[in-house]
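Ligand: octanoyl-coenzyme A. Inputs:
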Amino acid sequence: MSETSPQQGAESICPPVDLSGDAGWVPFDAPSLVGESLRFVSGEPDGNRFRVRYYRDSEQHLHARIWFGPETEGPPGHAHGGAVSAVMDEALGLAAWAAGYPIVVGNLNISFRTMLPLQKVVTVESRVVSAQGRKVMVHGRLFCGDAVYAEGECLCITLPGR
Ligand SMILES: CCCCCCCC(=O)SCCNC(=O)CCNC(=O)[C@H](O)C(C)(C)COP(=O)(O)OP(=O)(O)OC[C@H]1O[C@@H](n2cnc3c(N)ncnc32)[C@H](O)[C@@H]1OP(=O)(O)O
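Predicted complex:
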């Protein structure tokens, strides 16, 4: 018979982090646009996985301020590539929605440029670069200061009837 020690299942919650936006950014309410379904990345705003806030700038481009917590670990002390990809999938897909295109992601190419240390606040910036027929291309970059951690090219496909 196994017993649970007091430490097990009682992982401590990391302290609050500053996810405030740049001057001129306006908070973007993703659930009011796409519903409450974005729980995988955005669902635990005070947890130890991801903490995310979305903003739009004066040109309506979507930005995400994101903290990668200890539960996103891949290589020791650094974020898992899947965690980075999940963030890019959500942020770049949401950028298309925010631009007026009801889409799902059809193809996502990520270049991992630099290993991302855990418990760091970074930014994802995005641009809808083209829209032809049902295909909407969104480019994005995950960075902090001069350090670029990942770049993404996201082909979004509009859903008929939405
Ligand atoms: C709610 C807010 C969510 C925002 C953040 C979350 C983003 C996500 O994670 S979405 C979930 C992950 N994505 C998915 O599950 C999508 C799964 N795939 C599908 O459902 C379908 O393949 C779908 C809808 C993308 C396309 O299928 P379908 O509607 O039959 O369209 P289809 O005719 O195949 O393709 C339409 C056009 O897109 C192109 N296309 C589709 N997929 C791709 C692809 N992977 N690569 C290149 N081109 C593609 C086709 O070539 C076609 O082009 P054209 O019009 O020039 O002939």
